[in-house]
Design goal:
With 377 residues, the protein is an alpha/beta fold. 32% of the residues lie in helices and 24% in strands. It has a nine-stranded mixed beta sheet, sandwiched between helices. A five-stranded parallel beta sheet has the order 3-2-1-4-5, with helices on both faces. Strands 6-7 form a two-stranded antiparallel sheet. A hairpin with a 2-residue loop joins strand 9 and strand 10.
Length: 377
């Protein structure tokens, strides 16, 4: 972390959505709505927002004496700020179970207080709630905590968010109008990606630390041929009695299409001997299926962003990755997706594992038997 140069105390609004991201590892592709939250809890989902909020505040600690926080009550920010020893004032009321209304009311208090920056921990649903209140009245930055994060307002991980904050408060970063996107979760669970642009919000920008919005895959004839060539090579390379954990995406789905298997477009599926053995699995199901078997993970990257883990495929968790091994990960992507990228990104929620990825280059299969090497930033 660079030396802190400013001396004036800055006020940051800090909101945590405590249920954000709980649907990820259990394969629910989001936690919008009480019914889905209840189902996530029933499936054994654990809160992740607290850990991500604490990681952000820990990284920001050298700045602590130059920051005053306005925080949401209870688990919406107060708990983490108190634990990390920040100076803060609580806004709003504490509730046992929070709702979008709590997020909007808390954000409204921060707009009235004219904070220098609003930082929130959540996903696209939280972003949309904040947009309705904040609009372009003040700059906003997201700490990625949700399942689906298509908006261009998120730092690449909690630690990157802290670096963006102190650089922005030091006057080193500009703001831009960032797209606020969200998907229809019900359609998402049914294998249909229906994304919508809800508006724009002002946000600090640093191209290496803040993600862009997700780009959809083109559907040109060249793209389809490229996907088929990649799929053929993967199929020819498949080893017998090996568990293949295949992540979401159109490129990975082409593998199953050529095997005449019905893969979920937006879920994680398990293959053995070129046959699907389980559809749309969650973290626990993957761990049970592994059970000491030889295994490989096949994932594609998110267009425009470059994420291979931590965006929409949280079922392939750090536990799963560690069991399978980094050497058994195959990344596939068409040339059109790779050509605009300088590097890949990971956000597994496990800093030590993320560091292992960053210590090596990843070979990306971009055509039949043709690879491109990319670093991980």
């Amino acid at each position: 972390m660079s030396e802190v140069k400013q001396v004036a105390v800055k006020t940051i609004g800090f909101i945590v959505n405590p249920i954000a991201g709980m649907g990820g590892t259990v394969g629910l592709k989001g936690t919008d709505g009480k019914a889905i939250l209840d189902k996530a809890i029933l499936l054994g989902a654990k809160p992740i927002a607290t850990a991500r909020a604490e990681a952000f505040l820990t990284e920001l600690a050298p700045f602590k004496h130059y920051i005053y926080l306005l925080v949401g009550a209870g688990d919406m920010g107060e708990t983490e700020a108190k634990k990390q020893g920040y100076s803060y004032t609580v806004v709003g009321e504490k509730h046992q179970q929070t709702s979008p209304k709590d997020t909007k009311n808390t954000a409204q208090s921060m707009v009235k207080a004219k904070v220098d920056l609003l930082v929130f921990c959540g996903g696209d649903g939280t972003t949309k709630d904040i947009l309705k209140v904040v609009d372009t009245k003040l700059p906003v930055l997201g700490v990625p905590t949700g399942v689906k994060m298509h908006s261009a307002i998120f730092a690449v991980n909690p630690r990157a968010a802290a670096r963006v904050v102190y650089r922005f408060l030091n006057g080193e970063l500009p703001v831009r109008e960032a797209e606020v996107m969200d998907v229809d979760e019900q359609a998402f669970r049914e294998g249909r990606l229906s994304a919508e642009l809800y508006g724009y919000i002002l946000s600090p920008y640093e191209p290496h630390l803040v993600q862009v919005s997700k780009l959809a895959s083109p559907t040109t004839e060249d793209e389809v041929r490229n996907q088929a060539a990649i799929a053929i090579y993967v199929i020819e390379s498949m080893q017998p009695e090996t568990l293949y954990i295949i992540g979401p995406g159109t490129t990975t789905r082409t593998i199953s299409d050529l095997l005449d298997q019905k893969k979920t477009l937006l879920g994680v599926d398990l293959f053995v001997n070129r046959q699907i053995v389980e559809n749309d699995v969650n973290e626990e199901q993957i761990l049970q299926a592994l059970n000491g078997k030889p295994a490989k993970i096949i994932v594609t990257l998110i267009g425009g962003q470059g994420f291979i883990f931590g965006r929409g495929n949280q079922q392939i968790s750090s536990k799963v990755i560690r069991q399978v091994g980094l050497e058994n990960i195959v990344v596939v992507a068409t040339e059109s997706k790779v050509q605009s990228l300088k590097s890949l990104k990971v956000d597994t929620g496990d800093p030590a594992l993320d560091a292992m990825f960053k210590a090596q280059c990843i070979q990306v299969l971009v055509d039949y038997s043709r690879w491109k090497e990319l670093s991980v930033e």
